[in-house]
Design brief:
heterodimer; A: 313 residues; alpha/beta; 10 helices; globular; B: 328 residues; 2 domains; 33% helix; flat
Chain lengths: 313, 328
């Protein structure tokens, strides 16, 4: 369905009370940044934007809204719809509480990284095929689209949407067959450690990666605890890695590789490389892709009596 | 004002202490000057991200405490007026009685060399807080005429003693003209929000719908609080080792769940919006009431760093407007 027609449909549904509100991205003063917005006003539905600059995952914010009386319509990409499926399968969101509007996506750009690379006030942005054309106080500059995608967006899994309505557009997935990960696997453990140490040293533990993640819905995170003190609060590399690696353990089989954590990171730490690595291993070793269906079995929540490992019995 | 080169200024100051220069990231030792706002403010020179306060060791009657003595002499070059104003605001908390000895010692041992600002961007709104690109603050103030030549003047006795100012020639009329022109340009870009908030009306906005809506898209990460020149909240923890205990102080953020978690298990700011609200309330209501000055300097770093497109200006103006409408 054309975008304009979807807006008309949403307005109609809001007026008739078939949905309670709409969640999506709208403009901000900065053309490179879109912000999440929720409205229950039928007159406002046409302000929602569908762009590669929508950096965060709306499902994260869906969790923050009251979803008890009436459906909420939500603009979701493939990976975001898969994240919703995971949350439904975990019993976190009721399936019929969300009206899914599928939006086309070729990859979501890391706008903070793009802004840092441009280095000035941005007045306009445009995506033309494989280029991002930026205009502003540092003049007109072109960047390669691919260079500003998190690893997850370069390895987007095939998914056939179960959305209530689908917005027309170019939905060409980039799937590089985990090229980056396979290249990374050839490194020695020392080289890998050196790479991650260098990248993670920049972490300030602002927890933007945690807050942007739809899978991080714990009421109290393990780092928000004095007793027991799972990870010390400092900025030494062991404390930083302690936080990130434990977080990554919790992602296995749940993360749908939307890349929101990497795009949210103010220090441009390649977090999506780790989540992509998890996806690659799950697919390679267990033929498991997270969030394909809302009744899919949870990867780490399953056990079989016939399991060959003794500890599970 | 005297005419010299940036290198001459830095070399002259290096005999006093380690020189930290404004870079893209923050203020780095012997760094190359970045001709724009830095990502981090210089607050870490007075309130480090992590600092040891003391070490306690021994046992019984033979318990000893070894206190930290931050006596390293440092020069911070390139702090902008918003950064300096930020430190002045922060100081009100740490240097009012009872004084924080660590903060005070660090301040005594740090020279601030401020740059007049020609780097205003669309996120700058320093003119809302009684300062501007041409505000002279710190021990020495300078202006970059080009990539190397500067004009500078001392503002304090310490600033006068640090360099032999007499050996430099006076700034030419042309230099002053260039400076005034550039600063006027920056003044034009920096926004003045024309704030007229009645701080005593804090209870009327606290917990209101206007806040709930204005901060909905805030992620509640702590990125803004770390880059902010006036966010000074810290946490103190005792780190136990086998034979000794280290008391450490480190940056904290009011955006975190654990920040306001009480020992009983009760958390007065359990809801996310209350945490985002607190940051705005503290800067625009509580600090003006307590210290007579806004807790924001308009540097715009929080807007630059935000991954969620949150703009504190919007929230403040919405709150101000809400109060005005409510009170006629």
């Amino acid at each position: 369905m054309r975008k304009e027609d979807v807006f008309v449909k949403l307005k109609d549904m809001l007026e008739r009370g078939e949905i309670k509100g709409v969640l999506g991205f709208v403009k901000t003063n900065d053309p490179a940044k879109k912000k999440i917005y929720y409205t229950e006003n039928p007159e406002e539905v046409n302000i929602f934007e569908i762009t590669p600059f929508n950096t965060l995952n709306p499902v994260t914010f869906l969790l923050r809204l009251k979803r008890d009386n009436g459906k909420i319509a939500c603009f979701l990409r493939d990976c975001e719809e898969r994240a919703l499926n995971v949350l439904v399968s975990e019993g976190k969101i009721a399936k019929d509480s969300v009206y899914v509007i599928h939006v086309p996506c070729r990859g979501a750009l890391d706008t903070l990284k793009l802004k840092a690379a441009y280095g000035g006030d941005i007045t306009s942005l445009d995506v033309q095929d494989d280029k991002v054309v930026v205009d502003g106080s540092s003049g007109r500059r072109e960047f390669a689209f691919r260079d500003f995608l998190p690893a997850g967006c370069k390895n987007c899994e095939e998914y056939s949407s179960h959305a209530d309505v689908i917005v027309d557009g170019d939905n060409t997935r980039i799937h590089e067959d985990y090229r980056d990960i396979k290249g990374f696997d050839t490194k020695t453990p020392e080289e890998k450690w050196e790479y991650f140490r260098k990248e993670f040293e920049r972490c300030t533990r602002c927890y933007a990666c945690r807050e942007s993640c739809p899978m991080c819905y714990c009421e109290q995170c393990f780092v928000d605890s004095y007793d027991p003190l799972w990870v010390e609060p400092g900025l030494s590399i062991s404390d930083i890695m302690g936080y990130h690696l434990i977080k990554m353990y919790h992602m296995a089989g749940r993360c749908t590789n939307c890349g929101a954590c990497e795009r949210a990171c103010p220090e441009n730490i390649p977090l999506s490389l780790l989540t992509t690595m998890i996806s690659e291993r799950l697919k390679r070793d267990f033929n498991y892709i997270s969030g394909l269906k809302s009744d899919q079995k949870v990867f780490l929540g399953e056990f079989h009596y016939e399991d060959r490992e003794e500890f599970i019995r | 004002m005297k005419r010299m080169t940036f290198t001459e200024l830095v070399d002259g100051l290096s005999s006093w202490g380690d020189v930290f220069v404004r870079t893209k990231k923050g203020f780095e030792k012997d760094g190359n000057l970045h001709k724009a706002k830095s990502k981090n403010s210089p607050k870490e020179f007075l309130l480090p991200r992590e600092e040891m306060l003391f070490v306690a060791y021994g046992s019984g009657d033979d318990m000893r405490v070894m206190e930290a003595n931050p006596s390293k002499k440092r020069v911070v070059v390139g702090a902008l007026p918003c950064d300096m104003h930020g430190l002045n605001v922060t100081e009100k908390n740490f240097l009012s009685e009872p004084k924080d000895p660590y903060f005070a010692k660090r301040k005594d041992n740090t020279v601030f060399v401020t740059e007049l600002c020609q780097y205003a961007t669309s996120t700058c709104f320093c003119r809302s807080f009684g300062i501007g690109p041409s505000s002279k603050m710190g021990d020495i103030v300078y202006f970059m005429l080009d990539d190397e030549n500067i004009i500078a003047e001392p503002l304090t006795d310490r600033g006068r003693e640090l360099l032999s100012w007499n050996k430099y020639e006076d700034a030419k009329d042309e230099d002053i003209r260039i400076m005034e022109e550039k600063l006027a340009e920056a003044e034009n870009i920096s926004q003045d929000l024309s704030l007229s908030i009645d701080h005593k009306k804090q209870r009327e906005v606290y917990g209101s719908e206007v806040f709930k809506e204005a901060v909905f898209h805030c992620l509640n990460c702590g990125a803004c609080t770390f880059v902010c020149p006036t966010c000074y909240c810290f946490d103190i923890r005792d780190i136990k080792r086998k034979d000794f205990v280290i008391r450490e102080r480190m940056w904290d953020s009011c955006m975190y769940f654990i920040y306001s978690l009480e020992a009983s298990g009760h958390n007065p700011r359990k809801e996310r919006f209350k945490r985002a609200q607190n940051r705005v309330m503290h800067k625009f209501f509580y600090q003006p009431l307590q210290y007579g000055v806004y807790g924001c300097t308009g540097c715009g770093r929080c807007i630059d760093v935000c991954p969620a497109g949150y703009d504190i200006r919007e929230t403040v103006l919405k709150v101000q407007n809400y109060l005005e409408v409510k009170n006629g």
